Amino acid sequence: MRRISSDMPNTDVQYRLRRQEEGRANIESKLSSNTRIKELRDDPMAAAHATRYSSYLTRLQRYEQNTQFAMEHFDFQDSYLREFNDILQRIRELAVEGSNGIWGADESKYIAIEINELLKELVDIGNRLGPDSKHLWAGDKAFTEPFRLIEGTVEGGGELLVVGVEYRGAGASRRTEIGDGSYVTLDIGGGEAFWAEKMNIISRFDATNYRVTQDSAFYVDGVEIKLTAGDTLHTIVAKINDSAAPVKAYVDPETHGLSLVGTEAHLIRMEDRADSRVLQDLGIIRQSNNPYAPNWHETALVSGGSAFDMVIRLRDAFYRHDQEFTGGQGLGGIDLALNNIASRLTLEGSRRERVAMTWQRLGEEINNVTTSLAREHALDYSTAAMDLANMDFAHRAALSVAARVIPPTLLDFLR
What we know:
With 415 residues, this protein is α+β, with helices and mostly antiparallel strands. The chain has helices at residues 8-33, 44-98, 105-126, 190-193, 233-242, 278-281, 307-320, 323-377, 381-405, 410-414; strands spanning 147-152, 161-167, 175-179, 182-185, 200-202, 216-220, 223-227, 247-251, 258-262, 270-272, 301-303. The strands form four sheets. The protein has a four-stranded antiparallel beta sheet with strand order 8-9-5-11. Strand 8 (247-251) and strand 9 form a beta hairpin. It is elongated. The mean pLDDT is 83.
């Protein structure tokens, strides 16, 4: 049985007023946060959808930031590659002028001096930094200056000149994610961008009776070639040719050793896995504690030079006043370097175009997901404001009615 007392109307009124105040506070909180879902119980299904949309939106925004960085990175690459190309074009013009037979030995020396200065500028471009203050052409050794000048004397030159350019970087392995499971390679290694001739490596070790002694592996341009105990030289050649490495292997008919030739102009990089020494046993590479030094075996025949090598050969021909070499091999080497730069510009341009299209698509997806997310949890301001006004009016009315209905007690006068 419910007990009825004179205090019950006061208690009931206070309870109802507190409920109204709680409702008003809830609406005001939703208005301030622009969401209609403060707790899961407000709308469990919409809350679940909103969580999924929010997670997907965060990933899309991260991909959008990655594509923006990639486009900026590619813009830097494109600018420097075009600058490199322009300098090579100037060197080619000098080669054509110097090979026409009208210049004397003194004029030829002046051209050589200009080419030497242009060579230094080419090396400077190869050591440029990207938007993230990392070397653009050093591959995954982004904090290592990729090209090092080697100075010495040259026949006909009266001072120390650049006699070699050593590449100390690595292959291009830095990538960025631009979609779920979708990546784009950011870099073009200096051993690819600034090369000229296809490399050819011939071992002088007779490997006719060679057998792999244990399961092992080695790397060709970063591609792992797995070997099994008992593999012969012909098996090794077949595995290299079946891999994705940009080289072709064969058995040299004269030395009967392993030989490789690049399928494109680039610096071939080879190394044994930590638990293997197959390439060392085959006479391709040697053990070296210097991570920057070329590790070709001292007996291996290695040919195929970089764009810097082509410029050095041309400059030295001008110092010798060798017009026949200048107009033949010298000019031909510069053309090879120009052809390679053109192909790298095409590759860089295609990557940037892909990233630009992805960036545009991501922008549209972000707008669509943002709309879907707003549909699930966004607050209708007009409806919320009307509800708040109605609750405020009801609260004021309740207070007015309560003041008239509830009679004063002795306690009211004792306060």
